[in-house]
Structure formats: C-alpha cells, structure tokens
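Notes for week 9. Today we move from apo structures to complexes. The key idea is that a small molecule is not decoration. When we ask for a structure prediction with flavin-adenine dinucleotide present, the ligand SMILES becomes part of the input, just like the chain. The input block below holds both the sequence and the ligand string. Read it once before you look at the output, and try to guess where the molecule might sit.
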Amino acid sequence: MQTYDIAILGGGIAGLSLAYFLGASRSVVVIEREENLGYHSTGRSAAEFVLRYNSPEVCTLAAISRDFFDHPPEGFTGVPLLVPRGGLMIANAEKLERFEAHFTVEQGKTDKLTRLSIDEAVAMATILDPSYLAGAYHDPEFWDIEVESLLQGYVKGARRAGVDIRQKAGVMAARDDGRHWLIDTEGETISARLVVNATGGWADPTAGLFGVAPIGIVPHRRTAILVDLPDGVDTRTMPEINELDDEFYIKPDAGRLLVSPADETPCEPGDVQPEEIDVAWAAHHLETATTMEVRRIARTWAGMRSFAPDRLPVVGPASDNPRFFWLAGQGGYGILSSPALGALAASLLIGSEVPAGFTRAGLAPTVFSPGRF
Ligand SMILES: Cc1cc2nc3c(=O)[nH]c(=O)nc-3n(C[C@H](O)[C@H](O)[C@H](O)COP(=O)(O)OP(=O)(O)OC[C@H]3O[C@@H](n4cnc5c(N)ncnc54)[C@H](O)[C@@H]3O)c2cc1C
C-alpha cells in the first residue's frame, strides 16, 4: 500500500489547483472517481471571470486570482487564460427605478461603468430587443476564462512536481489508524497522513465517510442551453448580458450563445441533468429580451453549484479532526477563485505564510475556516 503525506479527494478545479500549489512540497495523491478530470461542475461552468460578483470576500478572491490569470508562471500555458468579454447589465421598464438605484451603488465602487442609451446597448449586443430594454450599463471588467487550459496547466504542473493522479478511483470508505487515514478506493487502499475534501457537491457525504461532521454544503442545480446565433452576429465582440435580478444571463460560447435561466435548485449530489422546465425558461428569457426565436437548441446541460450556509467557501481543517481539511463550497465562482483558494489551502496545509495577495487585501483566511459553523 502506498503512503502519501496528503490525499486530495476530487479531481475538479479545487483539488487540482491545490495539487498544483502544493507541488513538490509534500508527497501528494489526487483521488478522482470519474475517468475524466473536471467531469462534474468544473466542466460545466459558464467560464466567466468577473471582479464584482457575490460578496465582498468573493470580489477579493477574484482580485487576488487576477494576478495569476494575467501572469501565470512560466510554462503554465501557451494561451492567455482570460479573454476580454465585457458585460451589459440590463433591465426592463418595470425594473427601471431599481436599476437606477443599483447603478448608483455600483458606480460608487468603480469608475469603469458606462450608462448606455437603448441604442448604444443594442449597438453592443445587436440581438437585444429595444422594446424590452429600459436600462443598460456596460462593465468592461468581464472576461472569458480558458477553463480547459487552466485545468490542464494545474494538472501538468502538479504531475511535473510528482503528484500522483488516480482516476476511476472513487473513495468508498475510510478508517483512521491514529496516524494515517486508510482510504478504500474502487481499485486499492491508499494511505495518507492528511486528507483534503475537494469533492464539490459531495463534500458533506464525503466527510461522513471519514467520520467528520457535515457542514451543510448543499449542491444547487444550474442549467445552460446553447443556441445558434443569427447570421452576422460577431461573438468575439458581443458582451455578456446579465439581467438585473439575475433572472437570466446570455453569453457567447464557442461561436454559439449560452443562455442560463440562472436557476438555483437544491439537489442531491450526482451527474445532474437539465430539467425541461429550466430549459424552457432559458428559451423564454432569450425570446423575451432579444429579437431571436429559438428554433433549435444545440445542447443543454446542468451542473452543481455548492454552497455552505453563508455562501462563502470552506477552507481549513475540520473542527472535529485536524487531519481532515475542507476545500469546498465554492458556489458559482470556483473556477475564477481557484488560483487564490488553491494557493491559500496549500499554505495552510504546509504551514507557510498565507499568499501575499491575502495579506495585501486584508483578507484573513479565518473568514473561510470550517470552525465558523
Ligand atoms: C452552469 C454553471 C455555471 C458556472 N459558471 C461559473 C463561472 O462562470 N465562473 C466560475 O468561476 N464558476 C462557475 N461555476 C462554478 C464552478 O463550476 C464550481 O464552483 C467549480 O467547478 C467547483 O469545483 P470543484 O472542484 O469543487 O467541484 P467538481 O468540479 O464537481 O469536482 C469535484 C470532484 O470530486 C469527485 N468526487 C466526488 N466524490 C468522490 C469520491 N467519493 N471519491 C473520489 N472522487 C469524488 C467528483 O467526481 C468531481 O470530479 C458554474 C457552475 C455551473 C454548474
């Protein structure tokens, strides 16, 4: 039986970013149930990087991560990890008053936003229906993330540093001999001094396998559809479109249009699939806000966004077992925050200084500690 310092459970962006940042500092194994890495949430995201999203803590994680995306280490990837996209925030006439109030608040946070006339908004996103639109502003600070290149950068860097990555190796059971965890996977038993729970939507049940108390991390299903665009729409220059109340968002994706009804339905962890009703809502929103008619849906999918009770990530040793470490609850921002959270988790695990970005931003890692629950 092989023994490691650290066993990371879960081969999604969380587990693999951590493996990358741990590098050669410890002997590390990543244990993933599926044949393909990134098969679950990581492979189903909208690939969006934004600086203003969710809570102030998540905005800070994005700002810390930005440096890595803009200047990845030598040899990490051959392509830019962020591609400028820009974003429009839109509202219909019923919501105009709240839209103005929202714009005033957001303008107080950044001088990057531009209030647009209806004509200006339609010129930026020609599919928009002027009769739907009442308010719009442009935020240049939206980017597309090259998720596959990011994931492969983590994987290759981790492997170069000697990390073992076991696929098709679902963890079925575990026991503690006092010094090591003995982890039964589908194919073998692996021993490790310390375990990291990076199993996304399965984080709570995984803790149960190790006799650790759950935190209350709940997966929520989110749906996306891909539709063909009318001729003549340039997807390279078209911004992402977000509705004021997050009723839907629309975003160019590989030459087509990704539409999500921004659903957030609590679900059991698993290979979640789209429900017809959510697909119908996505098509309805697209037809309401734009001049497009949905004749054919090229692809549909759904994935899990998993939230702790306060919707912040959970990073640190379990209160009831210091040899069980949580790296979970990244909700709808796990890709964009992976450089910051992977590096933070690695520093906590090896006992080195927290990454400089956290210190500079005044963000204490204790904010994410499992002990807060
Ligand atoms: C539709 C959608 C849009 C999104 N858009 C964005 C976005 O634009 N930007 C952004 O930053 N984030 C976005 N997200 C969120 C992002 O995808 C997640 O936060 C992130 O992928 C979570 O990564 P993870 O590694 O924790 O989970 P996962 O990628 O799900 O990885 C967990 C892994 O653990 C494995 N596992 C579970 N149990 C076991 C076990 N017992 N043994 C071994 N392995 C196990 C699973 O097989 C899985 O591969 C979106 C999510 C969805 C669904």
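The chain has a mean pLDDT of 97.
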